[in-house]
User: What shape does this take?
Amino acid sequence: MPALIIDGKAIAEQIKAEVKRDAERLKRERGIVPGLAFILVGEDPASQVYVRSKGKACEEMGFHSITERLPETISQQELLTLIHRCNHDPKIHGILVQLPLPKHIDESTIIEAIDFKKDVDGFHPVNVGRLVLGHKCFRPCTPAGVQELLLRGGNDPSGKHVVVVGRSNIVGKPVMNILLQKQRGANAVVTIAHTGTSDLSTYTKQADILVAAIGKAEAIRGDMLKPGCVVIDVGINRIPDPTAKSGTRLVGDVHFASASNVARAITPVPGGVGPMTIAMLMKNTLLAAEGAMYK
Assistant: This one.
């Protein structure tokens, strides 16, 4: 039987509806409108698409948002000055610096300059440390979205063996730290595999839940999976396709056709994890506006 499709678009819409409801209540009861600042450096086409889609989500939620579009030649100090201004702007509750940045700008310095109470991306060392410790914090949006996909899709990871393929600071490591905590919606046994793993299938075949975030198109095939597993495919890769009008198509890190004949449930690409990232960004911004995360 083909795998059940975990519909990230539908689940993301549920979350955004909840956020919009709570944002309207926050405005009505406390006069606070969640505010998000987007900072985009350079002309990277993918980054511009991401920022536009996030800005559109803010409009849908009734959030206040600003977008600072900066030339690629901007100095690191000028960028730090802008972040400092956003840190002290009471109308701005969340700050998002779109990555990657130009090579002459140190990403770590920029991330650490953001007030951790406005770090809705969850990348600041304070939030990373609190995540590791299992304390309340802003969690990175994509990993938090992975957890929501599992829970709202009826696949509680508690007690399950989760294999995360990928060790990035943006997805792999935070997914591990979220799912291994002794908390509701987590409490899993987590294994990390990566590009340095000598026999990847040894580990992927053990997974009750597989989270693929290795950054290689269709690297994980059906014969590498445990029958009846759940697959969360975080990968977004563009490959040649002469049948497509654009000449390319999007695929994940998992070979969907073969995997869907083995797995019990699977996320599609596109339409799986991608919409969840924006939904969780909206949720983090609401939490920042509420001021309950850090009192």
About this structure: Residues 141-273 form a domain with the Rossmann fold fold (CATH 3.40.50.720). The longest strand covers residues 35-41. The CA atoms of residues 23 and 29 lie 10 Å apart.
